[in-house]
Amino acid sequence: MPKDLLAPQIAKWFQRKGVTALVYDNRTIGSSDGEPKNDINPHDQVSDCHDAITFLSNHPLVDPSKITLWGLSLSGAVVLAAAALDPRVAAVISLAPTAKLNIPPEKQTIILERAIHDRVARVAKHVPTPPAYLPIASEEDGTNLAGLPLDAQAVHELERLSPHFKNRFTVQTAYWLLSWSILHLLPRIRCPVMVVAPELDKINTPEAQRREVFDLIGTGEAEKRFEVIEGRGHWDWWMGGGGEGGLDGVLGLQVEWLKGMLGLKL
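User: That's the sequence. What structure does it adopt?
Assistant: Structure tokens below.
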């Protein structure tokens, strides 16, 4: 999702608690550069995350020894991968992380066929074609080629709320997601990690998030924490518990955990 949908509210919440927050759009998304637009490559996003850490490390408002990564859904997995590869990360808060996509074999074949055809067509000598796109959520059943159970109505609402959000991603996005997995990286993580799972998440169930992510993280048990947001799903987690549309309840617990793990005095 582009940063203007929810990230500003989250960043401002942390800022009011004394935490400096950097918000940015990943390459090709929202207001960031990169073509084609909405070409989502999580491998590149991990690299971009390392560049963001470099930027923050040199900022006068930031203690480089306290840099914490926060991510939701696919970005929740991206920040875990970044932490596994970058010793500068002091802590991670990962909400509903998508560590891997269980794409059915028949859809994998379709993805590869379309992706390779798209690559060939885009460099055709005589009549090159623009990048091919797929809907994030179809009008028929709310799913996409990657098999994610998304709500088409919710996607249209996101389009209404943000001029940067479009109900489409490139065919190559499905190609990148087919090879996306951080399972081999999780044991490398040594910093404190909090995994937050919405109770009613249909994309990544709490049981799957614990089994496929939390239990594999290499951090010592005393520095790992698994929390469940009761009564909320993948897209409405921020409405759970507390004021400010639920952010107080969800983020307040995260700040208290950070204070304990990093010795913050906020």
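The longest helix spans residues 105-122.
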